[in-house]
Amino acid sequence: MKSVDQSVSGSSEIPVTDPLSREESKRLAKNIRSKSRYEKMKQIPGAYKAFLDRRRENAAKRHERLDDKTKAEHRLQHARATAEYERRKKEKDPTYKKYDARTGIRKRVREGTATEEDK
Fold first, then answer.
1. N or C: which end of the chain has fewer CB within 10 A?
2. What is the DSSP string of the chain?
3. What is the pTM of this model?
4. The domain containing residue 60 runs over which residues?
5. Are strands 15-16 and 3-4 parallel, antiparallel or unpaired?
């Protein structure tokens, strides 16, 4: 609920908003702490890389522990999101074509002109 503070005389009106709920203020404080910790971590050379490695490993472990039905749901959700993304890109640019770098590598391997990096 927004109202205007009438105690201030003059032509300028000061909007007054409802105070944040306890949950909202806790959430915002947590976001600020998390962001500052993240920024500090990025300043330390190896810490950020270690953080990303741990996060990647934890995500892989979480995925391994899921049952087959949930994994299938995740794959379906990813496929739907990808299809939606492709549809939006094609609507925006009709000449859009998905680029896959591996296509060129496969072609070079087939032709026998692949470099050591390609193999």
1. N
2. --EE--SS-SS---EE-PPPPHHHHHHHHHHHHHHHHHHHHHHSHHHHHHHHHHHHHHHHHHHHHS-HHHHHHHHHHHHHHHHHHHHHHHHH-TT-----HHHHHHHHHHHT---TTT-
3. 0.43
4. 22-111
5. antiparallel
Count of the separate structural domains present in the chain: 1
Could you read off the pLDDT tens digit of each residue along the chain, which spans 119 residues?
445 555 555 556 767 677 888 899 899 999 999 999 889 988 988 999 999 999 999 999 999 999 999 999 999 999 999 999 999 999 999 998 888 888 888 888 899 888 888 76
User: Does a structural domain hold residue 10?
Assistant: no
Residue 3 maps to a domain? no
Residue 88 resides in a domain? yes
